[in-house]
Amino acid sequence: MEQHDWSAGAPALYRTRVTHLRRAPVHHYFEHRGYSWYVDVDALPELPAWLRAFARIDAADHFDGAPGTTLRQRIDALLVSRGVDPPRGTVTALLQARVLGYVYNPLSLYWCHDTDGALRHVVAEVHNARGGRHVYVLPPDFGEPMIVQKRLYASPFNGQGGHYLVRAPRPEADLDVTISLHRDDQPAFVATLRGERRPASVAQLVRMQLVAPLAPLMARFAMRMQGLTLRLRRVPVMPEAAVPQRQPVGQL
User: Fold this and answer.
1) Which of 56, 179, 205, 230 is the most exposed place for a label (fewest CB within 10 A)?
2) Are strands 146-149 and 28-40 parallel, antiparallel or unpaired?
3) 63-111 per-position pLDDT tens digit
4) What is the Cα–Cα distance from 59 to 88, expressed in whole angstroms?
């Protein structure tokens, strides 16, 4: 098999567009522009000291682990807890960095490769606004959507239950992720994350601070405004079942 170094495209920035489409009980469309980092977890970007406050990737923001453990160590531990062999090759990640100490990572994606460059697993780490977190370990995306049961109360307007169809191909020149939530007798709720690759240069990162200032904070604010809009439109708030907000990492 021909080997491919999937770390070659990292680090990179993606200028992103997040969309949500809700068809019931009201038709509602939401769009927000921002940017994400695409990194090799074993070779996180090194930036000039004056710029680090605008792009800090902290392993403590992801998965579970003892203080001081690296992001790679946390991914390996997560997979072992699921009975999955850790990847022996490159792991690339699409995530948000901390900006001036603030981070907002509703979805982080990880592509785990073997030493021959073959994609073995896709890991989707989901956070909700209450500090809850759940991690889904998915098979490789070879052009067909992956199906997984919904495990985390991610939105009061979507409640619990149902299943996701996930399309998360490895980012290249373009980023194109689609996640749809399917529940009995209801139209699918569809979220997309799309973007174009940009070099992870100092000039490009400075530009991102101008076109998307305080990106994590503004994304969180945009989501709060959407929640207020849905409440004003009388979209029902679904109760949360009495389950732990932070799901044990050993569960799907």
Assistant:
1) 56
2) unpaired
3) 998 999 999 999 999 999 999 999 999 999 999 999 999 999 999 999 9
4) 19
